[in-house]
Amino acid sequence: PRVGIVVVAAGSGERLGAGAPKAFVGIDDHSILNHALRGVFRGPVAQVVVVAPAERAGDALTEALAVADRTDAAAPLPSGRRRDLVHVVAGAATRQGSVAAGLGALWAGIEVVLVHDAARALTPPEVFERVVAAVDETGAGVVPVLPVVDTLKRVAGSDVVEAVDRAPLAAAQTPQGFPRDVLDAAYRAAAAEFTDDTALVAAAGGRITTVPGHASAFKITTPADLERARSLVQDAGA
Ligand code: C5P
């Protein structure tokens, strides 16, 4: 394939407080990682690199192979098996370090790279397709975004300093996509920690454009987010 998808799943999940690395917490019978990979495998045919906590790398591989086989049973690849496209590498102390570890495992022929948070477990396959299409069309970095719906305030401690106009703001999601050479060069140049990959590429001088995100691509961070994911999965199964 010409597309590579790095799925970062090496976070500790402290804010979720579930007592396990976040990607291995169950939504229903299946984990956050399992659900995330279902969306990934139903998207564009791609090399898939899962970045997992070192001590859970074996579990991550088992999970990824199971989802690959299941997806193949429903929609077989024209050539070969999906499980041959799956790799697992150990993560790092920061998200940026984990992404860098994933980039190191991409095959030589990969031209377009998507970086995706496993914690956005219910991201539909269409978002992956949309991001790849936009990278191909623009040659820029691509971030899926949603309009900001809340009213925003700039605060200092508990005091409101001013209202913030939300019209020019957007909420960033993943998968974020890039021409491979652009992302590799930006990672080599990165001299600070960035909160997402488009910020890192922008700091290196890269152009970034947006595509519509999806409400289901929210990041599971708190127990309330996990409840939301559970009801969405339950409703979909009902
Ligand atoms: O913590 P947060 O949910 O913002 O992390 C976003 C994504 O980055 C998650 O999918 C998490 O597993 C991943 N991550 C990682 N390595 C880290 C920290 C976060 O792979 N050291």
Write the layout of secondary structure elements.
Elements: E1 3-8, H1 32-41, E2 47-52, H2 57-74, E3 86-90, H3 95-103, E4 112-117, H4 125-138, E5 141-147, E6 152-156, E7 159-164, E8 170-172, E9 176-179, H5 180-189, H6 197-203, E10 208-212, H7 223-237
Parallel strand pairs: 1-2, 1-4, 2-3, 5-10
Antiparallel strand pairs: 4-9, 5-8, 6-7
Helix pairs in contact: 1-2, 5-6
Cytidine-5'-monophosphate is lined by residues 8-11, 22-23, 51, 91-95, 98, 117-119, 219, 221.
Protein architecture, described:
The chain is α/β, with parallel strands linked by helices. The chain has a single domain, classed as Spore Coat Polysaccharide Biosynthesis Protein SpsA, Chain A, CATH 3.90.550.10. It contains seven helices and ten strands. The protein has helices at 32-41, 57-74, 95-103, 125-138, 180-189, 197-203, 223-237; strands spanning 3-8, 47-52, 86-90, 112-117, 141-147, 152-156, 159-164, 170-172, 176-179, 208-212. Strands 3-2-1-4-9 form a five-stranded mixed sheet, sandwiched between helices. It has a three-stranded mixed sheet with strand order 8-5-10. Strand 2 (47-52), helix 2 (57-74) and strand 3 form a beta-alpha-beta unit. Helix 5 crosses helix 6. It is globular. The mean pLDDT is 96. Residues 8-11, 22-23, 51, 91-95, 98, 117-119, 219, 221 line the site of cytidine-5'-monophosphate. It catalyses: 4-CDP-2-C-methyl-D-erythritol 2-phosphate = 2-C-methyl-D-erythritol 2,4-cyclic diphosphate + CMP; 2-C-methyl-D-erythritol 4-phosphate + CTP + H(+) = 4-CDP-2-C-methyl-D-erythritol + diphosphate. GO terms for molecular function: 2-C-methyl-D-erythritol 2,4-cyclodiphosphate synthase activity; 2-C-methyl-D-erythritol 4-phosphate cytidylyltransferase activity; metal ion binding.
